[in-house]
């Protein structure tokens, strides 16, 4: 069927004499494997090994195809609920002029509206590290300008030759 069936079913359950049976329309308890298989056959369902590492292994009498279908459906629903966080980067120099700043601010605004996180950083080349106050002022100004679209997660921090700041998008109401 799929990638080497995730569960052992019916005659593929081997190496055990007894199994613990659980589920609907079955008296919960420990049964001989042959009895459990006969019960499943009588109900025209499958004996599925749910927990092979238990002693004795736990089995359930269910329609295996329906079980696999519902499991895939559940996994798909969980995957749909989880959100993928994207991080967009915007790079400045310590002496970025007004026009470039405005252009990058508009892009940052667009990224935050899309729901992406923003990593804004000032890159210091060579001796420009002496302008680290200017870099910090630039990043704080950006944070202030983007206040209505996002909130600062981390204040500007100097790491090597970069001063980095993170801005997360505000939740939509």
Overall number of strands: 8
Percentage of residues in helical conformation: 25-40%
| pLDDT < 50 stretches | none
Please state the overall shape, judged from the principal axes of the Cα atoms. Answer: rod-shaped
Task: Describe this protein with a few key phrases.
T_IF-3_C_sf, 4 helices, initiation factor, 4-stranded mixed sheet, alpha/beta, 2 domains, 173 residues, rod-shaped, cytoplasm, Translation Initiation Factor IF3, Translation_initiation_fac_3_C, Ubiquitin-like (UB roll), protein biosynthesis
Secondary structure topology:
Blueprint: E1 18-22, E2 29-32, H1 33-42, E3 46-51, E4 58-62, H2 64-81, E5 87-92, H3 98-114, E6 117-123, H4 132-145, E7 150-159, E8 162-169
Parallel strand pairs: 1-4, 5-6
Antiparallel strand pairs: 1-2, 3-4, 6-8, 7-8
What does this structure look like?
The protein is α/β, with parallel strands linked by helices. The chain has four helices and eight strands, in the order ββαββαβαβαββ. The chain has two domains: 67 residues, Ubiquitin-like (UB roll) (Roll), CATH 3.10.20; 83 residues, Translation Initiation Factor IF3 (2-Layer Sandwich), CATH 3.30.110.10. The strands form two sheets. A four-stranded mixed beta sheet has the order 2-1-4-3. The protein has a four-stranded mixed beta sheet with strand order 5-6-8-7, covered by helices on one side. β7 and β8 form a beta hairpin. The longest helix is centred in the middle third of the chain and has 18 residues.
């Amino acid at each position: 069927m799929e990638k080497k069936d995730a569960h052992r079913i019916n005659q593929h359950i081997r190496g055990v004499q007894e199994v613990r049976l659980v589920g609907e329309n079955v008296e919960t308890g420990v049964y001989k494997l042959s009895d459990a298989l006969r019960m499943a056959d009588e109900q025209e369902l499958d004996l599925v090994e749910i927990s092979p590492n238990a002693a004795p292994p736990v089995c359930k009498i269910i329609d295996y195809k329906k079980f696999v279908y519902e499991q895939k459906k559940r996994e798909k629903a969980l995957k749909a609920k989880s959100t993928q966080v994207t991080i967009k980067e915007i790079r400045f120099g310590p002496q970025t002029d007004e026009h470039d700043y405005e252009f990058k601010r508009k892009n940052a605004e667009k990224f935050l509206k899309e729901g992406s996180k923003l990593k804004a950083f000032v890159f210091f080349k060579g001796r420009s590290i002496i302008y680290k106050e200017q870099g910090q002022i630039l990043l704080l100004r950006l944070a202030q300008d983007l206040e209505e679209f996002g909130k600062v997660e981390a204040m500007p921090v100097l790491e090597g030759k970069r001063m980095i700041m993170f801005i997360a998008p505000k939740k939509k109401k």
